[in-house]
Every structure is written in C-alpha cells, then in structure tokens.
Amino acid sequence: MLSRSKRGGLWTPTMLIGLTLLGALILVAIFAPIFLGTAATQLTSNAGLGPSSEHWLGTDDYGRDLLARALVSARLTLLMTAGAAAISVIGGLAIGLAIWVSPKKLREMALRVLESAVAYPPLIFALVIAAILRPGVGSALIAIGISGIPGFARITANLAASVSHSDFVVTARLLGVPSARIAFRHMLPNMAEPLLILATTVFALSLVEISALSFIGLGVQSPQFDFGRLLNDSLDSLYTQPLMAVGPSVMIALSGLSVMLIGDALAAYADPRARNVKFRQPKATGPAVLPATDDGALVRVDDLRIGIPNGPDLVKGISFSINPGEVVALVGESGSGKSLTAMTVAGLAAQDLSTRAELLRVDNMNMLSHPDPSRLAKEISIIYQDPGTTFNPSLRMGVQLTEVLRTHLGMGRAKARRVIADAMGQVNISRPAARLDQHPHELSGGMRQRAMIASAMATGPKLIVADEPTTALDVTVQHEVLRQFRRIHKQERTAMLFISHDLGVVQELCDTILVMCQGEIVERLTKDELVRRDVKHPYTRALLEAIPILDLGAGAHKEVAVLGGVN
Amino acid sequence: MNLATTGLQKPANTALDEVPLAVEVQGLNVSFGDSHVLKNVSVRVKANGVVGLVGESGSGKSTLGKTLVGINVPDSGSIRIGGLDLAGISRSERARMRREIQYIPQDPYSSLSPRRTTGQTLAEALDPVRSDPRKYKREIAEVLECVKLDAAAADKYPHEFSGGQRQRIAIARALILNPKVIIADEITSALDVSVQAEIVRLLRELRGNMDSAMLFISHNLAVTQQVCDEVVVMFQGRIVEHGPIDDVYGNPQHEYTQKLLSSLPGSPGFTLD
C-alpha cells in the first residue's frame, strides 16, 4: 500500500482514512439500531444522568442513553442524506445535459434561469419547500434534494459546455449522432470523474442541510430522530446537560469529514498536478558569480542533466558552448529536451524537475546557484513561441514592455517608453508610441512578436533565448520576424540560443546547429555542413528527409521518406 | 475573377458533362457578425481529385471547410455535392447528403473520445444510433488496413496510440463511409515532422485508391505539393489563384502567391538581408 501511495495512486492515506471512517459509520448505521435500539428509545427512570461507566454520555430527560441515540440516529441520517444527494445529483445531471442538447436559444434561456436559481441560497429554498410540505422525513429529503439540483445542474452544464466544444463531439454531431446519444455516449463518460468528485461535496452539504432542517424543527419529527433532531433536543438543556450536544455534533462532523476526504483523494487522483510532490531542488551549489575564465565562451554547459526526481533523465548529460555573437540552434522534435535545455540556460529551471550539471554558466553567472535577478533580467532576454499568450491581455502594451527597464534599469516611465518606442521602430512597427497605449489584442500576432523582440533588445542583452519564436506565425510574418533576428545579430552581435523544429529556418539564421534527440545531442553541425547536407547521424538525415521541400520547377512530386526506427 | 474552375481545364459548360464533380461551390459568402469572412468564393473539386486549399490565418480557408460540412451557415451562394444542391433538398435528404462530406479535424488528441475504443469510434460513423462495432467487424478491419493499422487496434483506446496513429484513426473514420468528399483541415499541422511525413505518405497512397475527393486545407505549401493535384490560394476571404499545383507554385501569377512562395526559407527568392 505504502509504495503505491508514494507513486500517487488512488490509495493515498487521505483516501484510506476517509474510507475507513465512512465504512465504520455505515457499520454503525446497520448494526446500532439492532443492538442499541432499545437503549436508545426505551423510557427509563434514569433521567438526566451525567456520564458514567454505564452511560458514557449520560442519559436524556426520559432516561434514554445518549450515546446509543447518537449511534442509532446514524441510519436515518445517512439514508436521508443519500436520498437527498441522489435527487440533487440525478436531477442536476438530467437538467445540465438537457440544457446542452437543446437548441441554442432555449439553452441560453435555461442557463440564465439556472443562474438565478443558484443565486438563491439552497437552505432557504429547502425551508420553503419543507414548510409547504408537512414536516417529516420524506419532505425533508425532497426539500434538500430539490434545493441541491440547480447547483449541480450548473456544474454539469459548465462541464458539458467544455466537452461539447471538443472535436470528437463536433465530429459525432456531423456524423448525425442523435443528441441524446451524444450526451450519454460522449459527454457523460468524459465528465464522469469531476462529477463523481463533486457528488461527494453534494453529499456532505446535504448532510449539513438535513441536520439544519431537523434542528430548526422542520425536518424529522419525534419520535423519529436524526442528528439534527438530537441537536434540537439538546438545545433545551444545553446549560444543565451540555454533553447532550456532543454525540450528534461529533457524528455530523465525522460523516461530513469522511466523505470530503474521499472527495479530496479522488480529486487528487484525477489531477496529478494537485498531488503533493515531495521534492526539493538540491541546494544551490557554489557561488553566484564564478571566477573569470579565459575560454572566451559566453555560455558554457557541461554535462547538463535534467530529470524527473527519482525517475529517468529527460536531458541526458549534454555539453555545449555559445561564443559572444554566435547564433546556436537547438533542433529536435517534441520530447527531445530542447526547450527544457534552453529554459534552464535562461535561468528558468523547471521547479518539479531536478537539474544537475558540472558547469552551467552565462558570462560569469553561475546558473546552478542564484544569480543576481537584475543581472539576469538585463543580460538574458527570452522570446516565447506564442505571441498570443506572452502578454497579459488586460494590460496595455506599454506597461508590459517597459517593465524590465523600469524595475531593473531604474528608468522613469517616460524614458522607458521612449526607449521601447525607439526599439519598436527598429523592428518596423508602425506608430510605435501609439502602440504602447494599445492592448495586446489590438496588435496582430506578428506585431506582438516583434514588440516582444523590441523589448528583449531594449536592455542590451548578452544572450537572447528564443523558444520557437516563429512557429505560431504565418510564413510571410515569420519571414519578417526572422529578418529582425538577422538584423539584430548583424548590428548588435548578440549571441542567441534559437530553438526550433524547422531545419529550414535555422539553416538561414544560425551559425551552429545542435540536433537533439531523446535528451541527447546527436550531432553538431556548422551552417555550411547543414546547407551542403553534410550530415552523419542517421537521425539528422531522417529529420532532413522528413521535411517536404517545395519544388518550384513544375516537375514531378518528390517522394517523402519516412523516418525509420525513430519514434 | 470570381469563379475558380478548379478541377477543370476546359470551360465549365462542356466539361460538366465529362468530368463528374464531387463538390461545386458557387458564390459563397459567409460572415460572422460584421466581418465578411468568405467573399464570393467558388470552388470545384472533381471526383477523386485532391485539391489543396492554402492561405494564412484569417484567409478563410478553414471557414470554407467548416461551411462545407455544415458547421457554419452561408449568407448566400450554393453548395452542390455530387451535383445535388444542398439548399434545394428536404431536411432528411440533406442529413443523408451531409454524410457524403466527411471532416477530419486538426488535432488528433481531441478528435477521438478518450473513453471509446477505435472500433466504437469507427462503428459510430457507420451507424450513428447504435454504434455497435461487432456488427461491422469486416468494414472496420478493412478501413484499418487502408490506414496501415493492425486489426487489433479496434479494441484499443486513444491513449494507447501515438499522435500519428490517432490521426490515422481519424482518417479511417472519414474513409469508412466512402464519402464523395473529405475535408482535411490542417491534419498534419499539429504533428512532428517525422509524423507529418508518415501521414503525407499515407495520403499519397490513398490518393490513387480511394473513391473520395479531398479538400486538403493547409498552410504548409510543401505538404500540399506532396499530397494534392491542384491548389486554391486564398487571401483575405477571396480566392486569388487556382490551378494545377505545379503550375501555380512554379509560375505564380498573383502578387500574394508570389510573396507567399518567396517567404519560405530555402526558396530562391528568400533572403534575410
């Protein structure tokens, strides 16, 4: 069990405690009425006794054993709660799914109605229903059950909304699958996990609400009793017999706790990221600043290993260096470790991975230690792949682009804006000063990426790390962005680490090309070697052959090769 | 220039009798709110033809594909599938005709339901109501063979396959109905180059052997040249150029096509200086 829980399986301690608690409560619910039924209900002359070895919690005003009453009441309470939760869940599911298979206009209307219903507190809703029906077990169950429906329906509708936009639902619809079938065949199974987890919350809430209803006298009526009814009984003698409230209170707490623990464990199981990974990065090694070396390289990486803690390495001991003014490309397919490597060089090592190296330095900053953040910000600039997500959509471009200049170079707002506007003009952005007052969505993707480059250049960095900077762009826009990289390289002699999967792009821009495959550098090429297709490693060859080349002579199609033996 | 007589070398009126058309789109206009996304678009795809639809983001190429399969509703214009105008037929007839146009989405990771086996997914295309794979064992085995997958794949779930294999299953789902036309919407764009090469090779093999025509939407010109006979170039909601693919790429007429071609790294006109 322990080794399984370590791997983050279903049987975590939380789950085991929850299940044990719930199991015990169910056993109590089954057996207590059989064995303790008499003690809990028979009137005796031992009225109002304090705790004793015979009556652990004492007796009530009619001489009934309080512990027995608390245990016996578990059956009725749990049955009512299960019934109410079932009504909420089944009703909510039905309404939530029905909303999503209905036509758009009806759906919008139903969602608004649902929103108003959710805004209304369920307990008050339940009170109204219970007051209309005659107070009793059945009416309490129905009242709480119905009052929980809108909340669950809303959650179901929200989940259904996201599933219904997935390609497989769209495709099923195009194939002519009837709506009800789509709901049960495609949507429900793909929502089952979160719904199951939420159902445990519904159960815990129903328990509290049913107890509350009985407590204020609108639920279970004497001589029947549940947790809430027992609490209500204890109210009259709270000052003389305070222990009377303990039994039902503890039972309510334990029942709620058991179900919530199970829900938490299920949620953690469903979402691996929520699991508590016990891992600590090894202590920063060595000084933040390294003594000067005379090898002339700006970046030196020696035997870099990045791995899953206690698991396999994703980057398996690679070494390379970047000279001042050199443009180095890291090329490979997904999973090759190229982005991990580049981000680690840029000082953004992944928090949940272990990073080790003989040496990892940029200039004289020891990237394995904690280099000075303002030097990092000034000397290393990062350009990301997707210009759509690099910027915060709610802030104006100016605030975001001048951030580094203001915080790390100590420039005033006006000066920082001037510097950035200048840099934006350099990358051919029209009306740069006006752009600073615009929001990201008002600029095109290519313009945002050029703005990113402008801001990266404004600090006068020694190294630019660009992670697939043109992959999300159209070819004509990519062309313009690549021209900017070339211009910067020519004018400023800035060193670059350029990550790409596109050999065509890197061949135009880079001096040195490192081909990565499954965490290793399998081949190092100069630009000329790549242009001449003078490659040795079979993986590089396969990669080159896999790229379709446009044949601009109106000739025959070329046969595409398929990578053999490479996954 | 409104009429793109793709698939036809001769004037339309005489050729119509000779070459059966899988799809004929005429004067299609689509708008979302205020933005006019497709402007008077006309395309013809002959039976068995593979036509590339290229352009950059916002050119309207995906919108055209989605309008053909019925995801978007056109403002005006006509869509004929196998000579039958979709506007002029009954609702049930139209539902039947929709099955003659199959759509393959871009992302193989979201196009297959994670909780359904390959067999169930394929059976659903044949029988949307019951979707029982046991009834279609032969058809499923056949189509899996077409896309170079083992018959045992029928009992497996999507997570057991690689991205390339998943895309094969999505292709198989379109093929199994033997439709008049398949709309392939950027089906190699989310894949690694090696996997892309694998799918391109499959499509080249299918090209000669399937009864369906294909509209292959892609932003990757080199891939379209590997897969297609003809190409339609779109720009800002209009068709700017069309014709046999090697002619268009070898001798582009429209200014935009020329710019598109010279933006490709490695092409003769390409320079960063």
Task: Please give a structural write-up.
The complex is a heterodimer of chains A (567) and B (273). Helices cover 53% and strands 11% of the residues of chain A. Chain A has 21 helices and eleven strands. In chain A, the strands form two sheets. Chain A has a six-stranded mixed sheet with strand order 7-8-9-3-10-11, sandwiched between helices. In chain A, helix 2 (13-41) runs antiparallel to helix 10 (246-270). Chain A starts with a helix and ends in a 21-residue tail after the last helix. In chain A, 43% of the residues are buried. Chain B is built from ten helices and ten strands. In chain B, helix 4 (118-126) packs parallel to helix 6 (163-175) and helix 6 runs parallel beside helix 7. The chains are: A alpha/beta (567), B alpha/beta (273). The interface between A and B is large, with 58 and 60 residues.
Give the overall shape of chain B, derived from the CA principal axes.
globular
Computed CA radius of gyration of chain A, to the nearest angstrom:
34 Å
- The amount of beta strand of chain A, in percent, is 5-15%
The succession of helices and strands of chain B, N to C, reads HEEEHEEHEHHHEHEHEEHH
Shape of chain A: elongated
- Total DSSP E strands of chain B: 10
Number of helices of chain B: 10
